[in-house]
Design a protein that fits this description.
Low-confidence stretches: 1-9, 13-23
Oligomer: single chain
Distance between the termini: 32 Å
Helix content: 55-70%
Strand content: 15-25%
Structural class: alpha+beta
Number of helices: 16
Mean pLDDT: 87
Largest sheet: 10 strands, mixed
Radius of gyration: 33 Å
Length: 419
Amino acid sequence: MQRGLPRCKLFCNGEEISEVCNGVKAELILSWRYLITRRKEKFISLISLISISGIAIGVMALIVVIAVMTGFDKDLHDKIIGNYSHITLSGFKAINKAEYLDLAHKIALNPKVKEFTPSLEGQVLLKEENKYFAVGLKGIDPLKESKVTKISQYLISGNIGELKEGGIVIGKELAVYLGLGQGSNLTLYSPSGKKHNLRVAGIFSSGMYDYDLNLVFTDLKSAQVIFELPDQISSIAMKLEGPGLASQVKKELTLALGFNYSLRTWEEANQNFFAALKLEKLVMFIILALIILVASFNIISTLIVMVVEKTKDIGILKALGMSASSIRKIFTYQGMIIGLIGTLSGSIGGVLLCWLLKKYQFVKLPQDIYYIERLPVAIELWPDIILIVSVAMVIVLVSTLYPANKAAQLKPVEALRYE
């Protein structure tokens, strides 16, 4: 025999809502009726509207901010991958020609390695009139380097393929600092103190300030002359089928090449930077989630006022046999309806605003500060939006617990004493 209410007709605001009063259908309908009532409880509806608006604004703000931060993250990832090789092999001492040919043969045997190129790197001192600036000099094979990194795409003047002995390619920021342009002459001092005269063959802009200021390129033979290391290199840069394969290929190459060389992936070379980005995103998520938390207090207020207003109804329902669990569900469902409407509204508003920002780019950034012209936006269903919606609904659920429990604890005699 079914426990609780027998079959009966239940009315709310004069309308029949169900013939089975202890079912989920009745609890949901009662929750909805209490929420949208238009009689003397209009004040409650106003509070409910404020609660919905608070949740919606919080969710929308969270989606937009996280989408912008994800956009920045992806933009920086693309620039880092463009500036660095997927894997860089370095020797503990300079690598001679015969050793390089042996390494090149073994690297080429790995099918995941698409391209690789040798380079020679070191620190030099540049002089232009009365200005001195220490930079990293990288000697490259111009044609091979273009297949491994995006240096040729970053050139704003000159041609990387025409980089010949006596030429140098510098970053945009360094060119501005030293007052140089394409075709300008500058003086370079090697680590041994020898003086070299070079000509600016090109200027690049990678989108990363430090990179454009502190790194210059020359051809491999010129670098070998400057560092006094004939027919020697310091590293081999590799491009893989995809940047996500870097860790796996590193393990494979370590086994193939032995432990006399250092292999470093692009993620390892920038791990502190990526860790800072993740921490910043997490902190912003927590801070903006507080908006939803504050809005949840409006839900608590709404339900408490509702419980007080519906004390008589609760007493009648309990007198007819409705269980405390069902009473609790009525007010829990009501809070969840408020939260769901607010969360869905905020999600739709947030995604729409992100789409507008991405399509029309009406937010412009000062390029000298942020180094990008537009606000980058990237919407990710997982984990960003799903996580935001889940956190919002959990906060809403928790906010319903106290008022719903208080309603469930009301006794029929006390509720109807003064009616």
